[in-house]
Design brief:
The protein is an alpha+beta fold. It is built from eight helices and seven strands. The structure holds iron/sulfur cluster and FE2/S2 (inorganic) cluster (FES).
């Protein structure tokens, strides 16, 4: 296959970026999208040019780092897969393909296709954990969990923190990501003691990071490579409202700030 790539090149967050066209020749249909970029970069390095910076790690759909908008869609045109799982056989010989970074104020461009998603790390640090010592692995049946709750919790826990939901949302809202992290703990017995402080803290941090608000477009769910459901946003909103109602009945805690 022979393709024309239009790749966003940007030296850093403060520089102006622009699209630069590259010819990608001898592309095998069996290559992944990232392997195709590797081949283009080998050619650039041989010519003494700066290779295209892009993020990647596992290349098997579990780490969430391969944040590329391909032809206008986060992770590309195929639903339910990450960019590293997208194969070139999904494109036609002679195609033109645009590659851009996630576009969101809370995800500043580091270089080219690489963005800084440490805002997600700070949201997790604000409350995406259970603080009680858990000891060694308990017996499987020691804490009964209704099957439906276990299934919903595991579905929410499938979120890989890639940020495609933010990139797809017209408001650059992080609600799908935050709600997945809130819901997977809120649905399990171990998550109950900190359930209300957690949702307040994580939503407050989401707001502090400059993400937009959810206005129910649903683009996040459509772009999510792990098919995280927007039902989690409804769960998070219900918990947040309940936390607002009861928080005056207990001492103020860290993280109760901006969202309250
Ligand atoms: S909710 Fe989906 S799109 Fe958003 S960070 Fe998690 S896996 Fe990525
Ligand atoms: S490189 Fe890990 S999910 Fe794509």
């Amino acid at each position: 296959m022979k393709l024309t790539l239009h790749v966003w090149r940007q030296a850093d967050a403060k520089s102006r970026g622009k699209f630069v066209a590259y010819e990608a020749a001898d592309v095998s249909p069996d290559m992944s999208f990232l392997e195709m970029l590797d081949v283009v970069n080998e050619g650039l390095v041989k010519k003494g040019e700066d290779p295209i910076a892009f993020d990647h790690d596992c290349r098997e759909g579990i780490c969430g780092t391969c944040s590329v908008v391909i032809n206008g869609s986060p992770h590309g045109p195929l639903g339910g897969v990450t960019a590293c799982q997208l194969h070139m056989r999904k494109f036609q010989d002679g195609d033109s393909i645009t590659c851009e970074p996630w576009r969101a104020a809370a995800f500043p461009v580091v270089k080219d296709l690489v963005v800084d998603r440490s805002a997600f790390d700070r949201i997790i640090a604000a409350g995406g954990f259970v603080s009680a010592p858990t000891g060694s692995a308990p017996d499987g049946n020691a804490i009964p969990v209704p099957k439906e709750d276990a299934e919903l919790a595991m579905d929410a826990a499938a979120c890989i923190g890639c940020g495609a939901c933010v990139a797809a949302c017209p408001n650059a809202s992080a609600s799908l990501f935050v709600s997945a992290k809130v819901a997977h703990l809120a649905l399990l017995p171990q998550g109950q003691p900190e359930r209300l402080t957690r949702v307040l803290s994580m939503v407050a941090q989401m707001d502090a990071e400059g993400f937009g608000h959810c206005t129910n477009h649903g683009e996040c769910e459509a772009a999510c490579p792990k098919r995280i459901s927007v039902e989690n946003i409804a769960r998070m909103n219900r918990d947040w409202m309940k936390a607002q109602l009861v928080k005056g009945r207990r001492p103020a805690q860290a993280g109760d700030g901006a969202a309250g």
